[in-house]
Design brief:
This protein is of the alpha/beta class and about 270 residues long. About 40% of the residues lie in helices and about 20% in strands. The termini are far apart.
Length: about 270
Amino acid sequence: MSHFWINEKKVFYEDEGSGKPIVLLNGIMMSTRSWAPFVDTFKANNRLIRVDFFDQGQTDKLLGATYTHQIQVDLLKSLFDHLKLEQASIVGISYGGEIAIQFAIQHKSKVDRLVLFNTAAYTNPWLKDIGRAWMAAGKTRDGEAYYNTAIPVIYSPLFYETNQDWMQNRRKVLVPVFSNALFLDQMERLTQSSESYDVRNTISTIEAETLIVSAEEDYLTPVDNQSYVAKAIKNSHWVKIPGAGHASMYEKPLLFSTLCLGFINAKDTKYTI
């Protein structure tokens, strides 16, 4: 467990394993701890770096602040500088994928390969209103209300129905968290930071080899949103996972690990067939 400082704010990160570096970027409700099921697999042959964004996990909170994604992009650049990373592959899901896209636009030479799960190029009106529903539920300070508003839509209906024991355990864990006013305020700031997100004019400048992974039952960032990303990035490769929702790494964990590590660790990107 390690940390560094940005303008007197502490940033928490984990740096484990050795080999080709991979930086894992959290979704909006996640933290470094959310990746625990994948750590052993990812660090077996790679250097695995996880980080909590501002208002996430063990990184400092920006109480009373309003901000955009740029503050998280700058945090990621500071992490690269702190670790003296000349280049790394980046895996981001949802919110983390959006930060990864902007980092790859602004710091092209720092990104080896880019893997984007359930990631869009802009916050469309559909997602913006979903975020506003989350914020409205958060203002009630009712953990059950926030859970019922935010969590079911993250999963595919079949996974939600056939994994009820797991889902009920998630409810027991998350409802107390979602009843915490400090956490709900963090979520409001993070959600608001996404409202202005739009890289449609610059996403085509990304140079890294990029794997876009969509889930066919993603009801937060639908497949069409990710189709746009795949068409806009010139060195892109697009995979669609059937029968999975927005939290695709939890629904299809082996496939998540295989796609990430296979794409990042493949020696060649060009083949003579």
